[in-house]
Design goal:
Length: about 250
């Protein structure tokens, strides 16, 4: 083999090699990346594109940002359990291929999540247990949009809820029993609107009553003022009458 051929071979090897993220282990040949228990606060940006199984569990990750797994077209399993994840960007899973089959988000701090990040993952098995879920209309809509399997739906337990009597129960059990959080939310909205209108009408009526009473008081004061004015006596008109009589007498004589 010539020196030039060896040089091209080395360049090809270096170009095809992808480094392993710092703090992670990447055993060669099996497509598994181990980043468990590494005190990670963010998802590494340099995960090899040929990764098939990615372990990011048991870290300190709080948020999954947009495109965090972009380019991982071969990813089959994504393990994010036992972190501190509270929020997920709507574009968090953009760039993933169709190979993903398991997404483990169990044991995090999820109370409620937007359906948007998961719409493109309807075929993926979700692990959602051991999260402090808040059962309300948006969570019910999420379960409906994702068409969660029976076991996954049973994993969503209401840590808090719109009504206290639902706490500790599974969301799927409540929905199957006829509970509709969206109708309850609409009732709350209607009641709040009705209360607002009642208060508004009360304020308007109070102002009208005040305005009428104020005008009545002003009218009474004006009337009292008119009554207090002196009335002219009839004697003040006598000189004029006398002058008129004198003029008539004179005209008669003439």
């Amino acid at each position: 083999m010539s020196v030039w051929s060896v040089f091209l071979f080395l360049i090809h090897c270096l170009h095809g090699h992808q480094s392993c993220p710092r703090r992670c282990d990447c055993p060669p040949g099996n497509g598994v990346v181990w980043c468990s228990w590494r005190n990670l606060m963010v998802i590494p940006f340099d995960i090899p594109h040929d990764t098939r199984v990615l372990y990011l569990d048991s870290n300190w990750i709080v948020h999954i940002s947009s495109g965090a797994f972009h380019g991982l077209k071969l990813l089959h399993e994504l393990h994010l359990a036992d972190n501190l994840i509270e929020s997920i960007s709507p574009a968090a899973f953009h760039g993933l291929g169709n190979a993903l089959r398991l997404l483990d988000l169990s044991g995090n701090k999820l109370r409620n999540i937007d359906p948007a990040p998961f719409i493109m993952l309807t075929w993926v098995k979700l692990e959602l247990y051991n999260n402090p879920w808040h059962c309300d209309c948006s969570l019910q809509e999420l379960m409906k949009a994702l068409s969660l399997g029976a076991r996954t739906a049973e994993d969503i337990v209401c840590t808090t809820a719109t009504w206290k009597e639902y706490v500790g129960k599974t969301l799927s059990h409540l929905v199957s029993a006829g509970v509709n959080f969206c109708v309850t939310q609409q009732k709350h909205t209607d009641f709040a609107m009705l209360l607002t209108m009642f208060v508004w009408f009360g304020v308007v009526n109070t102002y009208i009553i005040y305005y009428i009473r104020r005008n009545q008081a002003e009218s009474r004061r004006h009337l009292e003022y008119l009554k207090s004015l002196p009335v002219p006596s009839s004697s003040s008109f006598q000189p004029e009458e006398k002058e008129v009589d004198e003029d008539n007498t004179l005209s008669t004589i003439l």
